[in-house]
Structures are given as C-alpha cells and as structure tokens.
## 1
Amino acid sequence: MDAGLLLLCALTFVIHLVGTLAYSVRIAGTRTRRIALSLSLFNILILISRTSNSFQAPLLAKRVEEGLAAGPSTMDFRWLLLSASVATVTGALLIPTCQRLLAQWVESFERQRSIGRVMRSAFSPAALAHVRDAAALPAWSNVGEARRGPHVSWTVIALNAIAMAIWSVGVFSALYAGYLAPELRVTASQLSAVVNGVATILMFAVIDPHLSLMTDDVAAGKVDESYFRRSIVWLTGSRLAGTVLAQFLLVPGAAWIALVAGWL
C-alpha cells in the first residue's frame, strides 16, 4: 500500500467513523434530555467528516485517471471498503465513550453558553482526565440482550444495511466504471450522485425519521431505554453488514453505471 492509498484509507476511515458515532448522539440526547443541543454539538464532527469527503473524491479520481493505462483493478477500492468496515467496528466500540463525552459537552455548554470555551476545555490538558473517566467498551450484555428482546423492525434494519451498502460503494463503483468505459468516465463519475441519491432517500426519508421518533419517545419516557439500546446495536450491526455487502456490489454496480452512461 503506497502513501496515496494510505491517505485515502484514512479519509474513508474518518468518514465512516463519524457516521457510526452518530448513534452515540441519540444516546447522549436521551440521557441529557437535550437532543437538539446534542445534535448541534455533534455537527462539529460532521464538519470533519465532510471535509474528509471533499478531499477523498478528487484524490481518488486522480488515482483512477493515473491508473487507466495499467488496466482495471479493484484492489484500491477493496482496501477503501475494508477501511469503511474497520471504521464502523471502531466506531461501535467507541459509542459508549463518545456518548459520555458528548453528554459532558452538552452540560458544559449549558453552563458556559460558548462553543469557543467548550472547545478550549475539550482540548485542554485537563480534558484528558475526562476522556480517561469516560472511556468504556460496550457492555457485552447489551449485545447479548439485543438477540432476545424486542427492537426496531427488521424492515428498518434491512433498509439501513442496503442504504449503507449503496452509499459506501456509490462513488467507488462510479469511478471504477471509468476503468470499464474510459471514454465515458466523466459521465460515469457524475452518475455517482444518482446512486448515492437512492441511499440518501432511504436514510433521510425512511430510516432517520424512524430513529428520531424513537429517540424522542425514549426521552419522553414512552419507550424503554433497553429497547432503544437493542435497536442501536442492531442498527450498528446492519451498518457494518452494509459496508461488507458493498464489497460484493462494487463490480456489478460499476458495470451497471457504465451501461447507463452508454445509454445517456
């Protein structure tokens, strides 16, 4: 693995790590009863993810352009999708720590009423003690309980996996289609927006409203927290399953995009 691919893997890791940690925002919101504020503070991490995404796309596109002479190869994309899976697992392990830290930031912002002061305290040497105190791995009992009690519907779990698979592989398949049809590579790369649009519709029109309603119900005491924890475990697992499924969709997706590019 060369330095360029390593950088791309790191950017992909950051994107999917932040996406997985988004579940911790829901937990912190229910614990502090400050859901909107928790989401607002988490947007700072979202900015980091979007910045990584902004650099990833052009760097990967340039790598594809430089690799056209060598012929098609999926290896780079396989490494990137593997980075997405590793980031998802890492994010799952960090959810308890992240939700505790985020809860502390919410309480700190309520006292200080200043994002600047919260950020200074969050990155100060004294904050290391807070990180140490908040550090915790997921309780295995929660994972075991997820298999026994009720949780979010299987339809939502399946749609979450499908949406994540499409979102993870959309840009990669579009760029790999440039190998399959070099004369149409610009058209193929633009079709990634169409592919990712399907995943975005699933995530924001179907999955996110359901998860938001469940979060509000927990905060209002209408839904038991154990149900919420089980649902988060299943949704995190389906997110990981989606990144694995993306490995199998890479080549068929690229072939389909190349075909559609030829029809346009």
## 2
Amino acid sequence: MDVLIADSSTIINSRLKMLISDASSQAVIYQAKSYDEAIALFAEKKTAVVVLDSGLPGNRSVNLLEEIKRVNEKTVVIVLSLQCDTYTRQKFTAANFFFDKYNEHEKITAIINNLSKTTVNDE
C-alpha cells in the first residue's frame, strides 16, 4: 500500500513515517512538504492513503484534498490539524478522518494497519 505524507514539518514527516512503517511493513511511503510536491507525487503515484496537514503553506490543504478526491474518491485521506474547531472540521468534510495533530496522530497506526489487512485480503 502506498502512502503520501503531506506536511511542511520535517519532524512531523519523520514521526508519521515511523508510525506508518510500524503499522505496515508493506507500506511504501512518499513525503511532500508543500502543495506542489504533494500534488505532483499524488499524480504520479496515485497513493491509496494521504496523510494531510491542514496547515500546508499557502493554505492549500483544502485544495489538495479536493484534487485528490476528484482524481480518486476512494483514496483514504487522513487530515491532521492543530485547529480542531467546527469551522476547520467543516472545511475538511471530504476527508475520511480528521484528527488533532498532536493528541490523536497515533490513531493513524490503527487505520493503516486495518487498511493493510483489507488490501492483503483483497488481493
């Protein structure tokens, strides 16, 4: 299963990569620090999962989510956000999951693990 992490923070990217690798040894992980990098990687790799920072530079996270879902509505998008208010959550309603970036990021492990099992069973 291919996973794209789109987060401008090198530290967060590294932490998420470790979490995803721990959840699935089969995961191929791509990393992007900007909208442009993320959209190019997604266009090329068509990843099954995207872990998306709600605060990408230039406020382009919502645009990225919309483009991902336009290209493939089955792509699982997990949004991580520092702002978990109703307004922010509403902007990301097209996402499959929405978590507090610092207090709930470890929930990604269970999601990736479950998706990996589903992918293996489907093959």
## 3
Amino acid sequence: MERKLQASAPSFRFSTVMLIDDTPLDNFINKKIIETSAFAENIQVHLNGLTAYEYLRDLDKETLDASLPDIIFVDLNMPVMDGFQFIKKFYTLPRIYREKCRIVILTSSVNKSDRDMARGIDPDIVFLNKPLNTEHLSLIM
C-alpha cells in the first residue's frame, strides 16, 4: 500500500497585513519574516502613507470588512505622507477601520517623543523598533 504525504496548508494568525515603508529592502525583509512565520496570508505593501490611505479610503463598501488589513505596520519617517500623518488620516476613516485594523508603528526612531505622540493618538498603538523579527510578531495579538 502506497502512502502519499500531503503538506498541510499553514495556519495563518491573520488574514491580511499592510506594510507602509518607503524602503524597499525593509519591505522585502519584513514580508519574508511575515511569510516564513505564517503570520499573515496576504501582505500588502505601500511605499508611503498617502498611497496606503488612498487604498483604504477607496475600498469597496460592500466588501470592506473582508478587505481591511488586520494589522498595519507603518514606518514614521517617509516622504509624501509620513507615518504620523497617515495615522491621523486613518483615524478620520469610519469606525469599522479602527475596529478591524490594529496600528503597529515599526520604525528606527528611538525618540521618546515619538512614543509619547503615538500614545497620545491611541494608547493601543504598538510601537516597535526595526528590524521586525519573530519575537515582535509574537507580541502582536
């Protein structure tokens, strides 16, 4: 009797995450870490806060709940629209966005005032220093 081995599909913690960072290398590394740890099934990448905001704002209202990312990793220092500008615009979107999406600041900044500003916007914002790693991912529930 011949036995066939079947690989089971990975069990992902989240359906979709969004990376917002202007550095392609950081996006590449973060995407690989997320993929290899089975953290999320889908990964969306944006190179600045404006394209990310426009994407979210323009989602089809009929499929909004299924289309929203569970986690949004956002860098702070970017051209066009920086991370804090994105976060402030994000909080102007309808309530379902805030209920479904969790904001995680992923930055190289070690400035305490950045952490304080994030807490001032929303105390539930997670603040992580680059580089992203599996330990960081385990902290995000």
